[in-house]
Amino acid sequence: MLRMLDLQRAGVKDHGVVTGFLEAVWGWYPDIDRDRWDWVVAELLDSDSWMFLLAYHEGEPAGLAVVSWRLTLYGSREEGRLEAVLVVEERRHEGVGSALMEAVLNAARRRGCRELEVALPMDAEGALSFFKRFEFREEKRLLVWPCAD
User: In a structure prediction context, what are the per-residue pLDDT tens digits for the chain, which is 149 residues long?
Assistant: First the structure.
């Protein structure tokens, strides 16, 4: 476990850090133009319906967790969807992901969240065992309709 780990909720000022992290760690490049992408990320970072949580080790970004929140018909309580938990390669297996997950679960409790879900690819056995450590259970079947093409 890293001793010098600092967790911070990202805001609009952290736009470049979040974008750089997604590109470097996830290898992700949006299929939209850069100006549109910058606007989307800024809007999400400024929204109470999204939480971007950055983990820093010795001042350097080490991990990122992203959660979206939405109201439901269940007594107007929110549900959360864990969109991503990413850790830089050199910090994996050092507790960064676990620290991010604990912070996400605490945020869900504070919001009175009814349920927090995460969708995984069918072959994500390593991720499945990680989430089960936090008492996630397999419960739903997710059907996906590909909108494109």
Answer: 566 899 999 999 999 899 888 888 777 666 767 788 888 899 999 999 999 999 999 999 999 999 999 988 877 788 999 999 999 999 999 999 999 999 999 999 999 998 999 988 777 888 888 989 999 888 877 778 888 76
CATH number of this structure's domain 5-132, picked from the four choices 3.40.630.30, 3.40.50.300, 3.90.1150.10, 1.10.1040.10? 3.40.630.30
Q: How far apart are the first and last CA of the chain?
A: 45
Strand 5-9 relative to strand 50-57: parallel, antiparallel, unpaired? antiparallel
- Nearest-CA neighbor of 61 among 103, 106, 7, 1? 7
DSSP lists the bridge partners of residue 117 as: 81
Contact 40, 47 (CB under 8 A): no
Instruction: Note whether 58 and 14 are within 8 A (CB).
Output: no
Using CA atoms, how far apart are residues 54 and 8, in angstroms rounded to an integer? 5
